[in-house]
Amino acid sequence: MYALRSRKIIFILFIGLASLIKSYAQPNLEQYDLKKLHFGFTIATNIGRLQVSPNTDFTAKDTLMNIGVVNYPGIGLGAITNLNIGKYWDLRLMAPVISFVQRNLNYTFPSGTKEVKVESAYCDASLLVKYKSARRKNSRFYVVGGPRFSYDFSSTVSRNRGIEKPVVSLNPITYGYEFGFGFDFYFEYFKFSPEIKNCQTWGSAMYKDGLIYTNAIQSISPQMIQISLHFE
Predict the structure, then answer these.
(1) How far apart (Å, rounded) are the C-alpha atoms in residues 142 and 139?
(2) DSSP type of residue 163
(3) Which residues are paired to 45 by β-bridges?
(4) Domains of the chain in sequence order
(5) Residues 21-49: pLDDT tens digits?
(6) How far apart are CA 135 and CA 184, in angstroms?
(7) Residue 135: how many CB atoms within 10 A of its CB?
(8) Fewer CB within 10 A of the end CB, N or C, for the chain?
């Protein structure tokens, strides 16, 4: 429900941004789309989450009753390289993009709750295909999607752990995909593009350490809603 409400609010904000471009505005950067290559940067915020699939018999493991996930907002910053490959098509390299993400796992036992922090500092590289609508004065709509590679500098696979010192680690290297949409707004000296993407991971990213905190889980798949402001 929280994620659904967030998406609705974000969508309304995007529609509001689109309405800021008035139909009678003078065209800006009229030669911009004729150039083959563009560079820029992105500032992002994100809502990271973990898709946790517990083992079917996890409630019988050492009286463990439940596993909950608490999500927190994060931030990111990165570079953009954009190649124009057609009137309505671009190829975009988003790399490097540094993202800081935190998600907590809450393990509930009859005697109480143990919280395990799962923090990540990702260096991402995404190769995306961008499909653009026809330009209307100083704006256009687009959709984007493609594969994603991530390296987690904060991976805790080598950290000491135990029953009284719970650690749940994600493998440092993961692969996935992302898709989303946004708007291009053409201003006098630059192009501004607010964008929202859904970032998914292929397979499980969990590091198995043989303790209850990972044995009770079949798989963990990191996911993220990313809201970006691109400047090109």
Answers:
(1) 10
(2) S
(3) 75, 227
(4) 35-180+197-231 (2.40.160)
(5) 454 458 888 899 889 999 999 999 999 99
(6) 9
(7) 16
(8) N
Measured CA to CA in angstroms, residue 101 lies from 24, 196, 209, 223 at distances of 41, 16, 22, 10
User: What is the rounded CA–CA span in Å between residue 148 and residue 184?
Assistant: 22
Burial 74-86 (b: 16+ CB within 10 A, else e): bebebebebebee
Conformation bin of residue 130: beta by default, left when phi > 0, alpha when psi is -120 to 50: beta
Q: Quick check: 94 and 80 in contact, CB under 8 A? A: yes
Contact partners, residue 148, CB within 8 Å, separation at least 6? 124, 125, 126, 175, 176, 177, 178, 199
The partner residues of 75 in beta bridges, in order of sequence, read: 45, 100
* Residue range 111-136, pLDDT digits in tens: 888 899 999 999 999 999 999 999 99
In degrees, rounded to 5, the angle at the alpha carbon of residue 165 between the alpha carbons of residues 162 and 171 is: 75
How is 59-111 classified by DSSP, letter by letter? GGSTT--EEEEEE-EEEEEEEEEEEE-SSSEEEEEEEEEEEEEEEEEEEEETT
Q: Could you tell me the pLDDT band of residue 2, with boundaries at 50, 70 and 90?
A: very low
Tell me which residue has tokens 């004729």.
34
Under 8 Å between Cβ of 42 and 80: yes
133's tokens: 């609508």
Contact 183, 143 (CB under 8 A): no
